[in-house]
Amino acid sequence: MDDARRFEALFQDNVRIVNAFASARLGRDAGEDVTSEVFHAAVVAYRSGRADEVTTPWLIAVARNKVIDRWRSAGRRKARAHLIQQRDEAISFPADWADDCRRDAVFDALSAVSERHRMLLILHHVDGLPIAEIADAFGQSDASVESALARARQSFRRHYRGEQAASS
Description:
The protein is mainly α. It has helices spanning 3-26, 28-47, 56-77, 103-112, 115-126, 131-137, 142-167.
């Protein structure tokens, strides 16, 4: 099979996976942009004779790096603009948040929260990073990350409940 056909097969097999990964972390519009960037990087790799390196894990690794780059860029733009002053009580996610029938509502709620809140929710609840590691990565105190995460949960819950009310 020639490179063009191999690439087309790779694209067809992975475009939804890469887009879902990026969109869950950045929102739909930015997720589509990252998906495009990932497959552009794949084309560059193919053209430079590294087609064998381009696999599903390679695509996800490139997507993850591009997501992190966007988070860092957004973080720098808003750096220290609004440190959370008050610690809010943690609010847990709804018990059914990961059910297949609730997935669209969860995705929409994640898309509706601020970029910073989405980043914190994904890093902590989806990727499983502890608060201390998130705080260290962004040069913030554990307390400020805990407080921001509490606000992120509140925002998520507000949007999630609104989505549920609208669809009932």
